[in-house]
Amino acid sequence: MSWSGIADPVLDLPLTTSAAAITFTVAAVAGLGVLAIRRSRRWLLLLPVLGLCALAVTVIAAVVVEKLWRPFPDRLPTTVYVWAGLALLALALLAGRWFCRDRKDRHVLAGCGLIAAWLVVTVAAAAQINAVYDEYPTVRAALGVSDYRTVPFDELARVETVPSDTWSPPPDMPSTGAVTTTPIPGATSEFEARAANIYLPPAYFADPRPELPVLVLLAGQPGSTEDWLVGGRLTQTMDAFAAEHSGLTPIVVLADGTGSEFANPMCVDSRLGNVATYLSVDVPEWVRSNLQVDADPRAWAIGGLSYGGTCALQLATLRPDVYPTFLDISGQAEPTLGDRDQTIDELFGGDEAAYARIDPADLLAHERFPDSAGAFVVGLDDTEYRSGVEQLAAAAKAAGMDVHLTEVPGGHSFEVWSAGLEKELPWLSQRLGLVGP
């Protein structure tokens, strides 16, 4: 789809700024006012009942999510439930107005106005929940309208390659990189992964092309392989770095580390799927066979956000021969399905020793990793994950790893995750041998 003229400024409107938050709050209050204000004794008696119903449904949903279903390893912020509750309240008010409608409410324009008010509250609530995670920073992102170049995978031709330190950019090299999408089969693991998205820098489209390092980058849970392209601002970060470094960046493979949006296989080989083998065997072998890259493991890194950061550290400690470099952005203190006892019972049949063999903290306490290096990143306001990240950074240093900790403004959101990648990309590119000190 082509967007031009006035469309681009509208698509690029921010959704997660303070001004946007105020706008959505005012809109939600106005919408609820339109739905709630009515001169009718019967309505005034029904109004508190509708409010209590919305509150009850919100509380029940919170209990189901937090205690029974538990699709996320950590609690959802209270703000999420507050705005979800307001959206339910708007729906309850709309339903109440419909069933208690009088002659005035039966007018087409009045009915459309009530539906519009409900939509305003629902959209405002969704926008405020989005602001908690900063996942869709603009209208463009929320609508799924990409602003980066794409290329079909089957159109990527093989050309002559040269070491990156002897390569020079040709005059006809594109100014930006491109994203391609392709399945990466679980040939050894038999893991059923979703299609991967792969960022290829401008230099990859040169002839000859340089042998580039690889960063396997993972999303959180819930999450998808598109998350780093949307909330993570991956293409903007990589293209900006490429513009300052003759078109060079690592190739970024956005691989699937969960198998579905809400799955939590904990980045291990288990009855939930052989994720560890998929990411440490299948993905590297496929990339080396299907893309022209630097095959030396010293030119390979794995990274991720939240669950993906935990997974990155797990593989860096379990398979340092494959991933001697890692990027742990807001990772968990330990792999978990909710709490340690539940995790050991459900995934390891109560075998604590089996859990210890995949837990980075246990591995760092008992093994040495003198050839590994990594970066830990966490938000200054991330009360849920910050202490765990700090403890793991100290443990990694004590285990002989060359690591550092970076703290950036923000909480557990894409504001931190995108900024963390941007800040660590120079270090990562130097560590992978792509650029000099």
TrEMBL record:
Keywords: ATP-binding, Hydrolase, Membrane, Nucleotide-binding, Transmembrane, Transmembrane helix
Gene Ontology terms for molecular function: ATP binding; hydrolase activity
Protein name, as recorded: Alpha/beta hydrolase-fold protein
Organism: Rhodococcus artemisiae
UniProt superkingdom: Bacteria
A Pfam match: Esterase
Taxonomic classification: Bacteria, Bacillati, Actinomycetota, Actinomycetes, Mycobacteriales
InterPro entries in the cross-refs: AB_hydrolase_fold (IPR029058), Esterase-like (IPR000801), Mycobacterial_A85_antigen (IPR050583)
Membrane-crossing residue ranges in chain numbering: 20-37, 44-65, 80-100, 107-127
Keyword Membrane: yes
